[in-house]
């Protein structure tokens, strides 16, 4: 059992590793950064020198270096194999989403976690936004009745951050094989996880999936519209896009006797929660990553956790893979 702050390494030194994992660890008492590993030795060393921590030359060196846990922020196609390797050595893993791009790999990873002393959670930080936690609690208590329709809408145009206009996505994001789908995994996988978590889903069926490919020069999906069946009586709508503008995100739940509508609940401030029970409230959340990391550390200590478990994250992989296999691509239609 791990006690005290986790001795945590970050694997992947660019994007999510540099922008999120490193500063989140630095501002949280739940973990201490003990080293970094990227794909390039030079860049790993440069980042490590700047942070004043060791640069690991390999995963083997990291595993031999007294590390309790890894925040794994490598590209999607590397998630399952690297996480499996780590948990088999008893190292806890906070794995960036998606868990895997293939159901077989995700299942093998879930089995590896079950057979090890390690804990794994998948980094679905939007679960930790107060508005989402509040709605989840209301739904679990049955206050809104039996939900027959849940809709999650979020668009976020690429490039997601203040990068030079016209910057193309990285090679792995542009590749359907390496990403497992672009908009559907960058954005949609979060929305699917949120919907399944809110509904406490045990299984999911994809009823319909429509994709577009509308980013110039990229043969990967940019908008995904999914219709899912959860349980016997709930139809879930997932809408995500990284090319289309939108006035803001929505999470909506409807039952014969109640409803809730969350506006902009994926954004840091100004979440409007309107619901039949209780009265409308506004919540703010400037950082969903810190509570996620704290929850992960608690899970590693064997304490209750609301982070995405392997079994839960596997459901999202199943939905995404089924949608991509059975879906229609607008540009391919006659
Ligand atoms: N939770 C969220 O909301 C969220 C947000 C953004 C991204 N993510 C996830 O984070 C992951 C990375 O996305 P990103 O935007 O950070 O991508 P990125 O900017 O391309 O960074 C990927 C990093 O992985 C490193 N890498 C690649 N192969 C490696 C290997 N074999 N061993 C060690 N490091 C390796 C790269 O090393 P070099 O620096 O040497 O090239 C790079 O630092 C994706 O799975 C994405 O879905 C999650």
Short characterization:
This protein is α/β, with parallel strands linked by helices.
Topology diagram in text:
Layout: E1 6-11, H1 15-27, E2 31-37, H2 41-51, H3 59-63, E3 69-72, H4 79-88, E4 92-95, H5 103-114, E5 120-122, H6 130-140, E6 149-155, H7 171-174, H8 176-179, H9 183-198, E7 204-212, E8 223-230, E9 234-241, E10 250-254, E11 259-263, E12 271-275, E13 281-283, H10 289-300, H11 310-326, E14 328-329
Parallel strand pairs: 1-2, 1-3, 3-4, 4-5, 6-9, 7-14
Antiparallel strand pairs: 6-10, 7-8, 8-9, 10-11, 11-12, 12-13
Bound molecules: NADP nicotinamide-adenine-dinucleotide phosphate.
NADP nicotinamide-adenine-dinucleotide phosphate is lined by residues 11-17, 37-40, 43, 73-76, 78, 96-97, 123, 125, 170.
Could you please describe the fold and organization of this structure?
The protein starts with 5 loop residues before the first strand and ends in a 5-residue tail after the last strand. The chain is built from eleven helices and 14 strands. About 45% of the residues are buried. Helix 5 packs antiparallel against helix 11. The chain folds into two domains: about 5-125, Rossmann fold (3-Layer(aba) Sandwich), CATH 3.40.50.720; about 125-330, Dihydrodipicolinate Reductase, domain 2, CATH 3.30.360.10. The longest helix is centred in the C-terminal third of the chain and has 17 residues, at about 310-325. It is of the alpha/beta class and about 325 residues long. The model has no long low-confidence stretch (mean pLDDT about 95). Strand 11 and strand 12 (about 270-275) form a beta hairpin. It has a nine-stranded mixed sheet, with helices on one face. Strands 2-1-3-4-5 form a five-stranded parallel sheet, with helices on both faces. Bound molecules: NADP nicotinamide-adenine-dinucleotide phosphate. NADP nicotinamide-adenine-dinucleotide phosphate (NAP) binds near residues 12, 38 and 74.
């Amino acid at each position: 059992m791990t006690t005290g702050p986790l001795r945590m390494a970050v694997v992947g030194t660019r994007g999510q590793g540099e922008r999120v994992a490193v500063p989140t660890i630095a501002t949280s008492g739940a973990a201490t950064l003990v080293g970094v590993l990227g794909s390039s030795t030079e860049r790993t060393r440069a980042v490590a020198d700047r942070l004043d921590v060791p640069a690991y030359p390999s995963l083997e060196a990291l595993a031999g270096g007294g590390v309790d846990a890894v925040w794994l922020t490598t590209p999607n196609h590397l998630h399952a194999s690297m996480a499996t390797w780590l948990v088999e050595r008893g190292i806890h893993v906070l794995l960036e989403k998606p868990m895997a791009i293939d159901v077989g790999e995700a299942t093998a990873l879930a089995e590896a976690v079950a057979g090890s002393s390690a804990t794994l959670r998948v980094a679905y930080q939007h679960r930790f936004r107060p508005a989402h936690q509040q709605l989840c609690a209301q739904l679990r208590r049955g206050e809104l009745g039996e939900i027959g329709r849940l809709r999650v809408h979020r668009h976020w145009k690429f490039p997601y951050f203040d990068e030079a206009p016209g910057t193309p996505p990285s090679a792995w994001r542009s590749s359907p094989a390496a990403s497992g789908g672009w908009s559907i995994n960058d954005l949609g996988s979060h929305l699917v996880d949120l919907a399944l978590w809110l509904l406490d889903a045990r299984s999911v069926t994809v009823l319909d999936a429509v994709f577009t490919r509308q980013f110039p020069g990229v043969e990967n999906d940019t908008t995904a519209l999914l219709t899912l069946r959860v349980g016997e009586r709930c139809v879930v709508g997932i809408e995500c896009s990284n090319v289309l503008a939108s006035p803001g995100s929505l999470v909506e739940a409807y039952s014969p006797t109640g409803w809730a509508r969350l506006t902009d609940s994926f954004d840091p401030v100004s979440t409007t929660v309107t619901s039949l029970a209780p009265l409308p409230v506004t919540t703010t959340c400037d950082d969903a990553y810190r509570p996620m990391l704290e929850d992960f550390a608690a899970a590693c200590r064997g304490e209750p956790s609301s982070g995405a478990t392997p079994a839960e994250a596997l459901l999202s992989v199943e939905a995404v893979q089924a949608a991509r296999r059975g879906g229609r691509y607008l540009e391919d239609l006659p």
